[in-house]
Amino acid sequence: MTHTTQAPITEQQSSVKQAFVGLQMLFVAFGALVLVPLITGLDANTALLTAGIGTLLFQLCTGKQVPIFLASSFAFIAPIQYGVATWGIPATMGGLACAGLVYLALSTLVKLRGAAALERIFPPVVVGPVIIIIGMGLAPVAVDMALGKNNAYQYNDAVLVSMVTLITTLCVAVFSKGLMKLIPIMFGITVGYVLCLFMGLINFQPVLEAPWFSLPNITTPEFKLEAILYLLPIAIAPAVEHVGGIMAISSVTGKDFIKKPGLHRTLLGDGIATSAASLLGGPPNTTYAEVTGAVMLTRNFNPNIMTWAAVWAIAISFCGKVGAFLSTIPTIVMGGIMMLVFGSIAVVGMSTLIRAKVDVTEARNLCIIAVVMTFGIGNMFVDVGGVSLKGISLCAVVAIILNLVLPKAKNEAA
To answer: Which pTM value belongs to this model?
Structure first.
């Protein structure tokens, strides 16, 4: 008996077909891409612009070899919210631009010492609990949004809309197949939005008044030491997660991108994309697992489709009505989505520990995880010379220090 599989698509496509597939890839990423700016108060059109530019810069750094799309990172939601409230958007963007330098430093480390150097400095026992804190720290935000606490929504309306949105997203994520399974966020937002329409909770006037063509809102960054020191350590977790993203697309395509073009090049590309996005007023970029899933589903391994996805994102960012429409999405709809998304981030942290078979009964591992979790959930902060370190950034620094200071068990050290 012989088995046939669909042959991977690499180069043999017309430009028109590549453009169409690229639009499809953008559609897969769209829900998550625009969600970050909508939650953090940044401009959604700018996020589209910087996702496109970031993807093109990544392709430039990697020699256009890796079929990956970069867009808004969920890991930075809470830090952006805190930064905007504390220092304002320009200073937050300046801090995030500097956070991109973490990727560049790790890229240099990998170039000089090899990919194994990352594992030694940032093992799962360090990265796992930090990712958990990223998700758990956002849980109150999701609940407040779902209950409509920050807006003038009635409790019953808020609960109805947010729960319908959440249940729709859950059902699509669990029961659907094919391309639909990759866009549960899009489905959840659509159903929640339609329900809000029927309930009279949406004002379309901003969409009608918005021009078809409009320049994205570019923010000139400012550089404040406190903001930079707060945001720098936060880049560690998504930078290490980047390695998992590259390994995933390598597995899907059957090519070892860790070796060629090299992990140092992909980290460099992600770092430059993150800094460039922040310098323009957009959220930091990261690799999108949803798009990797779409690549696996379509078996379209041609990196040119990501070029087209980036071009589409840039083109759409200049449509004023798109941004105006996205701004009409009620926060109670986003709250329903966020209860799943933020919880999923925490689960990623747990799976990081589980996959690595971290022994939490071993005293060293227990101490690192326990201290990081307590600091994160308990909102611990440290004030040194007028500079405050708190939240995810403090957790990341503490986890790294404990990992370097606490002695390893004999079998682990060997």
So the answer is: 0.83
